[in-house]
Amino acid sequence: MAEPSTLLLGLLFLAVAAGWVLGRGASSRDAADEQTPPSQYYLGLNFLLDGEQESALKAFSEALAVNAETFETHITFGSLLRKRGEVDNAIKIHQSLLSRTRLPDVQKNQAHLELAKDFIVAGLLDRAEQLLKDLIELSEDHEADAKTLLIDVCEASRDWSQARLLAESQLTQTVSQPEPAAKLKAGKIREKLSHYCCEDAEDHELKNDAQGARALAQEALKWNEDGVWPQIILARLDQQEGQPARAYDRLAAAAELLPERFPELVNELISLSTVLDRHNGFTSLVERLLKRREDPQIRVILADAYIVSGQDARARDVIKQGLESKPSSLLLARALALLGDNVIDGSLVAGAHKLAARQSAYLCGVCGFHGPSFYWQCPGCKSWDTLYRPVR
Ligand SMILES: [Zn+2]
């Protein structure tokens, strides 16, 4: 168990002092069993002074009377502990709140919700799931919050069909709201539904259920017709069914729709263009995309396409133009490589490559997570479709 920090104990010490005064005021209305024994408070202080933080925490928690007035203090303290990673202690506090019979239902339900959050952080997903399902049944006030948390649980346990059901019910509730913000929220939920269908489709692919995977990818497009991920899945399925031309057209259309996602599907497109002998068509697609989006990565793809067709001079030109208009370490590395070893020291090329590889990592626009691989869901903040390649 993590040691509670001195700062937190200090806060609890103050909370007990304040809570005890409040609790004493309230005790004239509450039952005698909720009166605070001040001895616990002094005991906690002794533990604190002796450096026995674990025991001090326990004594203070017991000393702080639980009633309508001090309830929020307990909740705040519990969530503080959870945020600091002391989730075991947070669970103890919230479980002790739930054991009080005299709390009003609305506060019990709030403690329920907090305990579910503790379980999620502790990785006890089954227990969180059961708590949240009960809460959705029990409390209209907490239903929306509980549903949002339950969706997080479904995402973590990859239960995509339940995640979809919950998100669909969120969507029904959201579209019935008149506020302008509801429209934006509904759009976000639709995008999320599309991602859930894609996750589910890929799980079906792993189980060799191509038909199920195709139906789910089509449903993903129903939720978000501009989605790139469903097209990548459908293109894979097209190829398995011996339809490479359909797969190529699908991916080329997706790239034109969203050029910033082009590098995520380019390898598939290149191998399809080889199979179909469509190299010239592919090259002009990349030329069109580069005109729409000045991106060093697209420039490098175009240079490679020129080299494949033996147009080395054009490849050098396209990199040179990039270095003039928007220099980047990636372009520099490619320029050095293209100049060849008669001009350049090999270790210099390797150094530039290393620099470019380090800088072409993906970056999350929400939380700043960065890494070398692409994910549809950010491993840091769990947001969907937020990883981008910083243009350097
Ligand atoms: Zn993130």
Give an account of the 3D structure.
This protein is elongated. The protein starts with 5 loop residues before the first helix and ends with a strand. 36% of the residues are buried. It is built from 19 helices and three strands. It is mainly alpha-helical and 392 residues long. It has a domain at 6-175: Serine Threonine Protein Phosphatase 5, Tetratricopeptide repeat (Alpha Horseshoe). A three-stranded antiparallel sheet has the order 2-1-3, with no helix packed on it. α11 (210-223) packs antiparallel against α12 (229-240) and α16 packs antiparallel against α17 (312-325). A hairpin with a 5-residue loop joins β1 (362-364) and β2. The structure holds zinc ion (ZN). Zinc ion (ZN) binds at residues 364, 366-367, 369, 378, 380-381, 383, 386.
